[in-house]
Specification:
Layout lengths: L2 H10 L7 E2 L4 E6 L5 E5 L9 H5 L12 H4 L9 E9 L2 E9 L3 E8 L9 H6 L11 H12 L7 E7 L5 E8 L10 E2 L6 H9 L3 E3 L7 E5 L17 H9 L4 E9 L2 E10 L7 H44 L4 H15 L4 E6 L2 E5 L5 H11 L7 E4 L2 H5 L10 E5 L9 E6 L4 E6 L23 E6 L8 H16 L1 H4 L4
Antiparallel strand pairs: 1-11, 2-3, 2-6, 3-11, 4-5, 5-6, 7-8, 7-13, 8-9, 10-12, 12-13, 14-15, 14-18, 16-17, 17-18, 19-20
Helix pairs in contact: 5-8, 8-12
């Protein structure tokens, strides 16, 4: 089997059907209707006398430590959970977690540990807010989250890992109690967190791996079916991921998803070189702080978008003022000049009624006509953008002056104005945590793909594409389209 096939298999790995849990807790599963235990982990005898054989098939009335009225506190939607603290289970003081699953209730037991001492939740949450006389940028929000979490979480390294649109992740903030900031600014390929693992982050409030070297525990059932551990906090870890963490010299990890506007925006990843026993209360405090950060940061992003829109509207209003009273030819040349500046383009070209109006270094009109014949029917929302036009239309448009293209099309009349802004190819440098080329990885004798062993900074230089068109560039292009429609007598010609 080649590396590409092994990578595809990693993406398809059914993580929730591993049939095993981590050993820092024990698990039973109740059938929702009969309230009979249908699955139990083999280490249940660490908590309950008699072991797994006495628990399987027992009904809730035979579990003296679990009362039926506890189930009434559990909401009905899958994934909902409730925790009961400091319950006596045999000789142990335990936290009992009930999780609603599909037709079952997952019950997890963890021995209570003394939580790390930290300030009150209110005092911690206050640290996520800027002071009344402070103006924060996004990095300030990132750093405040990590420094606050470091008060709660006993990990050496905390990283804020933000996803890009293609699921490549970048470490945009890092807090280290000892040692250097090794990963700040580095990127990780999308395949490091496969799609199925990203989906599970939506379904679990956090993910704890207290000991990378611990042996997983089997879950056995009354039937041969494999238990669904989608919602389980104890779910075992993929062997590939355990090897990945070991290659990073990580002995324990903890991660919290950051869900913003219904999307997985990023992850707080916590690493420690040795194993870490962390109490439920510390984890829940960290989860609440992460959720509050998401609310605050989303509000900040909304404010920044409003500021950006106001700024764009002011600039576009000035365009309208200058265009007033101008003839179509003067207006087209002015628009070409202003778009060159506003879009930070290398050159611009406007086509109206078969005539090209250009600003910046001139582009051969034969090339422009060829580009226009390809692009004019390809608009979505009347705006087209690419960093590399050759990826869209092949080498026929391979010319250094028009590698990046942002185009504006007011409507679908073929003689109406079309605006093009161009950027030249530039070397794009990306700093990766190790070589991101998965084809360089090797498989062992069993066919298991081994993660890369080095996470040292690895710089990739690419010169095929232009700089990325920003959100501001696209928003301004949409506003310019509105101006063109408003000034239709200048810019829109009938077929």
């Amino acid at each position: 089997m080649n590396v590409s096939q092994l990578l595809a298999n990693c993406e398809k790995e059914q993580l929730h059907l591993s049939g095993k849990i981590q050993s820092f807790g024990a698990l039973i599963v109740l059938d929702e209707e009969s309230l009979v235990v249908t699955y139990a982990s083999r280490n249940i005898d660490n908590f309950i006398e008699g072991g797994v054989q006495n628990v399987l098939g027992a009904d809730i009335g035979q579990l003296e430590w679990l009362r039926e009225d506890m189930l009434s506190d559990l909401p009905q939607s899958p994934g909902q959970r409730v925790t009961f603290y400091d319950y006596v289970v045999g000789p142990h003081i335990c936290h009992i977690r009930l999780i609603r699953s599909e037709g079952t209730v997952v019950i997890e037991l963890e021995e209570a540990h003394r939580p790390q001492s930290f300030m009150s939740y209110q005092a911690l949450e206050a640290r996520l807010y800027p002071g009344t006389d402070e103006t924060w940028n996004e990095n300030d929000y990132f750093e405040s989250l990590l420094s606050t979490l470091h008060e709660v979480l006993p990990y050496q390294r905390l990283m804020l890992y933000r996803f890009e649109s293609d699921w490549v992740g970048e470490v945009v903030a890092e807090s280290v109690s000892r040692g250097e900031k090794d990963y700040l600014g580095l990127k990780f390929p999308a395949s490091d967190i496969p799609e199925i693992a990203r989906r599970l982050y939506f379904q679990n409030p956090s993910r704890l791996i207290p000991d990378v070297k611990a042996t997983a525990v089997d879950v056995v059932g009354l039937a041969d079916n494999t238990v669904d551990l989608t919602w389980s906090d104890l779910r075992s870890v993929s062997p590939v991921h355990l090897q990945y963490l070991s290659n990073m010299d990580v002995g324990a990890s903890y991660s919290i998803p950051l869900i913003i506007s219904g999307k997985l925006w990023g992850i707080v990843a916590c690493h420690n070189p040795q194993s870490v026993a962390m109490d439920v209360t510390s984890r829940q405090t960290a989860e609440k702080l992460a959720a509050q950060f998401c609310t605050l940061f989303n509000s900040y992003r909304s404010r920044q978008r409003l500021i950006l829109l106001r700024n764009i509207e002011q600039r576009v209003d000035e365009m309208v003022r200058v265009l007033s009273g101008q003839d179509p030819q003067t207006s087209c040349q002015f628009l070409a000049d202003i778009l060159l500046y506003e879009l930070n383009a290398s050159s611009t070209a406007l086509l109206l009624g078969g005539t090209w109006y250009q600003a910046g270094p001139r582009v051969d009109e034969k090339l422009l006509n060829q580009l226009d014949s390809e692009v004019k029917y390809e608009f979505s929302d009347y705006i087209f953008q690419t960093q590399n036009i050759t990826e869209n239309y092949g080498d026929e448009l391979n010319h250094a002056s028009i590698r990046g293209v942002l185009a504006i099309k007011p409507n679908f009349e073929t003689m109406a104005l079309r605006c093009y802004a161009f950027r030249m190819p530039e070397a794009q440098y990306s700093q990766w945590a190790g070589n991101p080329d998965k084809t360089e990885q090797k498989a062992d004798a069993s066919g298991t793909l081994s993660p890369r062993s080095s996470f040292e900074k690895w710089v990739e230089a690419r010169g095929e594409s232009s700089r990325e068109w920003t959100r501001e560039n696209v928003l301004l292009a949409k506003k310019v389209r509105a101006v063109i429609l408003k000034e239709a007598d200048k810019f829109l010609l009938a077929d």
